[in-house]
From TrEMBL:
It comes from the Eukaryota. It comes from Hemiselmis andersenii. The keyword Transferase applies. The keyword ATP-binding applies. This is Protein kinase domain-containing protein.
Length: 302
């Protein structure tokens, strides 16, 4: 089936481009108390979000584990954010993820969508270790050695992502997941933006506490530099267990980000503090770049 507009049961239109669909044959059955989605056995629920459920599934022949995102297209089509509905946002995330193939970015293996069914299925890499840190509350600070390992993985993924013209716009520990080997992978590309020719953007997105100073005011700014700032806030959180700027008031957070300097732990090594100060430079023109981060002394330590 070609084109952008399809029709579901009862003639209801849903908008997923057929060019993004890998598999149109879909079988969902229960056999001996076990639910099967095509050749994948459902093991358990992993979580639930605004877009749908995530289930742990196992390939019936190979035994390989995957995360299966299950979304109701009719529900997503009815949920609107401004001029867009959530199904359009899901389609955008699929487009972004199909551009990406890197060891430090979560992999999407398959998009399953049949016009005979009202549900959309995304088969993703299973990240057994879960979030490397919760962004929502005070957490135990990591050792510099662990923080460095996680941060190296993050920066490797961001370097690749920027090289193919993708800005994430919501980098934070909550979106940095661990696989079974302890490797950090960047996830959740719902706010991702594909750029061509320029990396200047004019719309802030993502989580306020991780927003760059230049994203807190009107006007265009570099999406690459804003991602670097969010990497800096993530590293700060690794090393302090909390964000540098926090307030229940959104206006206050943005003011703090623009005007206040972070408070650094006296236990930080001089090299860690130096890198953090370069990452959290309020001027995007002088803020450290990805190549600068990779060659920084703290990154090279064992």
């Amino acid at each position: 089936m070609s084109g952008h507009l399809m029709f579901g049961r009862g003639g209801a239109a849903f908008e997923i481009s057929s060019a993004l669909v890998d598999t149109t044959a879909l079988s969902v059955v229960k056999r001996d108390g076990v639910k099967l989605i095509n050749q994948y056995e459902v093991i358990k629920d992993l979580g639930r979000g605004s877009f749908g459920k995530v289930k742990l599934v196992r390939h019936t022949d190979t035994g390989e584990l995957f995360a299966m995102k299950v979304m109701n297209k009719n529900v997503l089509r009815k949920k609107r954010m401004g001029t867009r509905n959530l199904l359009m946002d899901v389609e955008h995330e699929i487009k972004v993820m199909k551009l990406l193939d890197h060891p430090n970015i979560i992999k999407m293996y398959e998009v399953i969508d049949s016009h005979e069914h009202h549900k959309l299925y995304l088969r993703l890499e299973y990240m057994e270790g879960g979030q490397c840190m919760d962004s929502k509350s005070d957490s135990q600070a990591l050792s510099e050695a662990t923080a460095r390992k996680y941060f190296r993985d993050l920066i490797a993924g961001v370097e690749y992502m920027h090289s193919v013209g993708v800005i994430h716009r919501d980098i934070k520990p909550e979106n940095l997941l661990l696989d079974k080997n302890g490797t950090v992978k960047l996830a959740d590309f719902g706010t991702g933006q594909i750029v061509e020719g320029t990396h200047m953007i004019n719309k802030s997105s993502g989580t306020p506490a991780f927003a760059a100073p230049e994203a807190c005011v009107e006007g265009a700014f570099s999406g690459f530099a804003a991602d670097v700032w969010a990497c800096g806030v993530s590293l700060y959180m690794y090393l302090h267990g909390k964000c540098p700027f926090m307030s229940p008031n959104l206006v206050a957070i943005f003011q703090m980000i623009r005007e206040n300097e972070p408070v650094y732990s006296p236990t930080l090594s001089p090299e860690a503090r130096d890198l953090l100060e370069k990452l959290l430079d309020k001027d995007p023109a002088t803020r450290i770049t990805i190549s600068g981060i990779m060659s920084h002394q703290w990154m090279a330590e064992q």
